[in-house]
Amino acid sequence: AVVSTQSTGYKRIPESVADTRGQLESCYQGCRYQGMARKASIVPSSLSTSRQSSLAFKGCSEPLNDAALQFKLSKKVAELTLVVHMLFTRNHEREVEIEATKLAYEEEIDTVTLGFESEISRLKVLLENEKWKRFEEMERVSKEGDDAARKLIEKHEKKLTELAAANDSLKKEVVKKKKVLCVDTTA
User: Fold this and answer.
1) Helix (H, G, I), strand (E, B) or coil at 14
2) CB 31 within 8 A of CB 53
3) Tens digits of residue pLDDT in 69-93
């Protein structure tokens, strides 16, 4: 509904009501249903006193009497009530739709968050396992290196022992030969 911007005692009234405002003002002048019309937001607060109450309602050729006026007012109040109800229902449906969308997005965010958290946990476990594998490999290599070094040391120590034994035997031979030469030279 297009809204009229005409200044009245009330804020704004629909154009369908604004079209017949002049006729309604004169029809409602002096009418005992004027209070009910004001409550229905149809008639502005200040009514024109120059118009006569016997003017016909738009589309009617005869003047409005109290029963016809009451019927027209009741019909207009019913129409406005339906419009208000329709707008309230639309607004409520929109609120429900927004809430459902909000819940759906929150659930999706929770699902994605849980998925990423589980993936992060899985990757942390894989990283820890890889660290332990690397550590064990380094220990193995270190142990193999230690074993190889130990074997080399043992091998060199054995050679040194053999060489020392050979050196001792050569010294003993030298001492024997010196004794033999000393004995031969003295004789």
Assistant:
1) strand
2) yes
3) 999 999 999 999 999 999 999 999 9
